[in-house]
Amino acid sequence: MENVLIIGASGSIGSLVRQKLLETSDSHLTLFVRNINRLGEIDEKRETAVAGDATDIHDLNKVIEDQDIVFVSVNNRLPEIAQKIVQAMDINHVGRIIFVTSMGIYNELNSNGFSDDVPSVLIPYRKAADIIEDSDIEYTLLRPGWYDDEPDINYQITFKGETFVGHAVSRISVADLATRIINEPTLYMNESLGLARS
Known about the structure:
Order of helices and strands: EHEEHEHEHEEEEHE
Strand content: 15-25%
Number of strands: 10
Radius of gyration: 16 Å
Number of helices: 5
Helix content: 25-40%
Distance between the termini: 33 Å
CATH class: Alpha Beta
Oligomer: single chain
Number of domains: 1
């Protein structure tokens, strides 16, 4: 049984990853959120809910200790959060992370796959990705297209250095790929994956 930490567990992606892991694994889930009330009912046999701040190293140390895998889906202060998570993972000798960023962080929509000329709105996502990639942690970065709430699990993957293909992707597709990697941690090791509807 793996111990999986979900940072941002009440968000639109984190909540779906939580649901899919409960359905497809026997992992124990630690749900790290600002407000526990947003999580709904907790399965006390499988889940531990912890309220805290992902920019606070003390809060992170408490939840990262004894984890096998860390999954992160947050929507603000990404570089600061990435830096603190890497620091806490190093302190606690936790070596596997899946981190959600965004399509376009390499300007791979408009280039042949990699460019440092990144739109300003995506700079925090790019900085967070660089922090994760430059660490000694085994990572997978997910670069989804624009989210929608379609029920389809339908996505194609592009790798760093390739032109991003597609535009939108369902939230459940992002959660599906994240869950596959969590359940098979050697999958897509040290890769940055674009994903959009095929």
